[in-house]
Design a protein that fits this description.
By secondary structure, the protein is α+β, with helices and mostly antiparallel strands. The protein has a single domain, classed as 3-Layer(aba) Sandwich (oxygen-dependent coproporphyrinogen oxidase), CATH 3.40.1500. Helices cover about 40% and strands about 25% of the residues. It contains 7 helices and 8 strands; from the N terminus they run αβαββββββαβαααα. Strands 1, 2, 3, 4, 5, 6, 7 and 8 form an 8-stranded antiparallel sheet that branches. It starts with 19 loop residues before the first helix and ends with a helix.
Length: about 260
């Protein structure tokens, strides 16, 4: 039976979802703020499909959690579980553009050949020192502490580099006991420190000028357009849910600031 969720703040109900701990920690961290549901259409709050053979179908379930606050335009998490094949957490937090703040991004994906881990406070204006310096001063020591204990994630496409900070934590972690230890002892505390750093920045942020706000907005829109155009989950989502639904979900829910 498909989960019933009435708004984006209702709990995620995917059983055995691999990344549940991280969304739980996010929800706890946001408890210090006054939160409201982020408007997400019912068709995107919960989506169910099946894959595999007709004699042995496997269920795939996607649920979308979201909120907004006085300073956060949208915090949303796409949560997907496809049997034992794939488990995904795609969490992006977008501040309101009248605060000089970065994005928070966490993309954790389990595939048959391992876990992909991406974690960052991503700049809206990477070349603007007033936008980045304070963030990077706080974040780079956190990154240095944890990245050195993780396998490399490999190269980053040149066109993507402008959307990541120097503290981009990026790793490919094996399945099995070794991977579980890395997730428990490295990824969990690293995630907490990145998130706490971000929320401290949010807490302390002051409203900026209208001119500055417009510049931040333009940077945010450029980032969102890039993410929507290059979303690596597009092929997987199309396979599970169809092209039309997938394009609406990517462009009007996941990356809806155009």
């Amino acid at each position: 039976m498909q989960s019933i969720r009435n708004n984006s703040l209702d709990p995620i109900s995917i059983s055995n979802w691999r990344w549940a701990h991280f969304l739980d920690e996010t929800i706890k961290a946001f408890s210090i703020f006054q939160t409201r549901p982020y408007p997400i259409k019912n068709d995107f709050l919960v989506r169910e499909s099946f894959f595999g053979s007709s004699s042995n179908p496997k269920k795939v379930l996607l649920e979308t959690w979201g909120l907004k606050t006085e300073k956060i335009r949208q915090a949303r998490c796409a949560c997907l579980q496809a049997g034992e094949i794939t488990s995904v957490m795609n969490l992006v937090i977008t501040p309101l553009n009248n605060y000089d703040l970065p994005f928070f991004g966490a993309d954790f994906v389990t595939l048959p050949n391992g876990h992909l881990i991406a974690l960052d406070l991503q700049p809206a204006l990477k070349e603007d020192i007033n936008h980045t310096q304070d963030v990077w001063d706080k974040l780079i020591p956190i990154h240095s502490k944890w990245q050195s204990s993780l396998p490399s994630g490999g190269g980053i496409p040149s066109e993507a580099r402008r959307y990541f900070s120097p503290a981009f934590l990026w790793s490919r972690i094996p399945l099995g006991e070794e991977g579980e230890k890395l997730i428990s002892h490295i990824i969990k505390p690293a995630f907490d420190e990145y998130l706490n750093c971000f929320l401290e920045l949010v807490r302390d942020a002051k409203i900026i000028s209208k001119e500055r706000s417009l510049k931040i907005l333009n940077g945010q829109k450029e980032y969102m357009r890039y993410r929507a155009e290059k979303d690596p989950a597009r092929g997987m989502l199309r396979g599970f849910f169809g092209e039309l639904w997938t394009e609406k979900y990517i462009n009007h829910t996941l990356f809806d600031l155009k």
